[in-house]
């Protein structure tokens, strides 16, 4: 059996240069890095990184009807506002986590004086077969 025959990529580390990075805002203040997903590892899990620079514009997006999202704040502080079945807001600091069930729209704002760094995962990965 070859690696191509496996349902998922083989176990192993992900090199930093394999992380697919792109900017989400015109001001370049919100950057996303994709570490593991259906494209890179044939995985139903999507694992990523986010950087939100001080002073960048607020960032909004919506979770689809099937995707569960989790976030861990590694650095900085931010405010999260969400809409859906339950509306709310939360102020988060380093070490805090948060979860979004499917079908919610939310916005994050860097409210601190340092850049925010988040680690996140989505399940299932929107690119899952």
Structural description of this entry:
By secondary structure, the protein is mostly beta strands. The chain is 3% helix and 47% strand. The chain has 1 helix and 10 strands; from the N terminus they run E-E-H-E-E-E-E-E-E-E-E. The strands form 2 sheets. A 6-stranded antiparallel sheet has the order 1-2-3-10-5-8. Strand 6 (77-83) and strand 7 form a beta hairpin. The mean pLDDT is 89.
CATH class: Mainly Beta
The CATH topology label is: Jelly Rolls
Task: Kindly provide the radius of gyration, computed on alpha-carbon positions and rounded to a whole number of angstroms.
Answer: 16 Å
Q: Can you tell me the CATH architecture?
A: Sandwich
What is the overall silhouette?
A: globular
Q: Uncertain segments of ≥5 residues (pLDDT<50)? A: none
Oligomer: single chain
Alpha-carbon distance between the termini? 21 Å
Q: Summarize model confidence as the mean pLDDT.
A: 89
Q: Helix content range of the residues, please?
A: under 10%
Number of domains: 1
Assign the CATH superfamily.
Answer: Jelly Rolls
Give a short account of the largest sheet.
6 strands, antiparallel
Largest sheet strand order: 1-2-3-10-5-8
How would you classify the helix and strand content by structural class? Answer: mainly beta
* Beta-strand percentage range: over 45%
């Amino acid at each position: 059996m070859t690696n191509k025959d496996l349902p998922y990529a083989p176990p192993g580390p992900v090199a930093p240069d394999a992380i697919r990075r792109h900017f989400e805002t015109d001001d370049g203040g919100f950057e996303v890095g994709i570490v593991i997903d259906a494209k890179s590892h044939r995985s139903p899990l999507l694992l990523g990184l986010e950087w939100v620079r001080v002073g960048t514009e607020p960032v909004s997006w919506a979770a689809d009807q099937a995707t569960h999202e989790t976030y861990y704040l590694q650095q900085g502080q931010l405010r999260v506002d969400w809409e859906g079945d339950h509306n709310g807001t939360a102020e988060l600091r380093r070490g805090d986590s948060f979860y979004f069930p499917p079908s919610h729209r939310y916005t994050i704002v860097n409210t601190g004086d340092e850049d925010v760094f988040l680690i996140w995962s989505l399940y299932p990965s929107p690119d899952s077969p």
